[in-house]
Specification:
Elements: H1 2-12, H2 14-33, E1 39-49, H3 61-79, H4 83-93, H5 102-106, E2 109-115, E3 118-125, H6 128-149, E4 159-163, E5 167-170, H7 175-204
Antiparallel strand pairs: 1-3, 1-4, 1-5, 2-3
Helix pairs in contact: 1-7, 2-7, 4-6
């Protein structure tokens, strides 16, 4: 009986409930559809050993090389957490950095260390041209700084950091997903309002007299 009463109440206020469901859905779809187009770029970096340094413990040479490449990889990761290095990349690309605060600046780049010799960097740009210029500047900056960092006594680099060809794709606005979230929110509000109307209706009904 209570279920039938709820259905009857929902039908009675069907236009209100329909509006409660549709408004968040339409707003969510409109918000997603009007978002500016952005482009995501991915770059892979590889740490390669290029010059073998003479050591007495030849049996441990591979282990030492692995440890050294791991330390170099950690250093490369730290560069993308350093605002001055990031600004240097933007300057090399001739792209405005538009720095508002340090945390948002370093958050533009996502770097992940997959192994001691394999790193991945991703970032987002507002246009394909900016993505291309910034990607080239990122690769050049990392390669140059890495070559200057690890050197033997005779000024020879022991390792090199090589950037792959950048891959840029247009980011999806995810209109269906955002619209689904708006629909679920609207449906939840509709159920809440229906329950509230039912409670008010029951409260207003006169109690039977003895």
């Amino acid at each position: 009986m209570q279920f039938l009463d709820t259905i009857s109440l929902a039908w009675r206020f069907r236009w209100l409930i329909l509006g409660v469901i549709l408004i968040p859905t339409i707003l969510a779809v409109s918000f997603a559809a009007t978002q500016p187009v952005s482009y995501s770029t991915s770059i892979a970096f590889t740490v390669n050993r290029i010059n073998k340094q003479d050591v007495k413990e030849y049996q441990y040479d591979g282990y030492y090389a692995l440890q050294a490449s791991d330390l170099l990889s950690e250093t490369v990761v730290s560069w993308f957490l350093t605002p001055s290095v990031i600004v240097e990349m933007y300057d090399a690309a001739a792209v405005p950095a538009n720095v508002t605060d340090f945390s948002s600046l370093t958050a533009r780049f996502k770097i992940k260390k997959y192994s001691s010799q394999n790193l991945g960097v991703t970032f987002t740009s507002s246009s394909p041209s900016d993505a291309q210029k910034l990607a080239a500047a990122v690769v050049k900056t990392v390669e140059v700084k890495a070559s200057q960092l690890n050197q033997s006594a005779d000024r020879k680099a022991l390792f090199e950091v090589v950037g792959s060809k950048p891959v840029t794709v247009e980011r999806s606005r995810q209109v269906p997903l955002v619209g689904s979230v708006g629909f679920v929110l609207g449906a939840f509000l509709a159920v809440l309002i229906t329950g509230l109307l039912g409670a008010l209706r029951g409260h207003k009904q006169p109690t039977p007299t003895q």
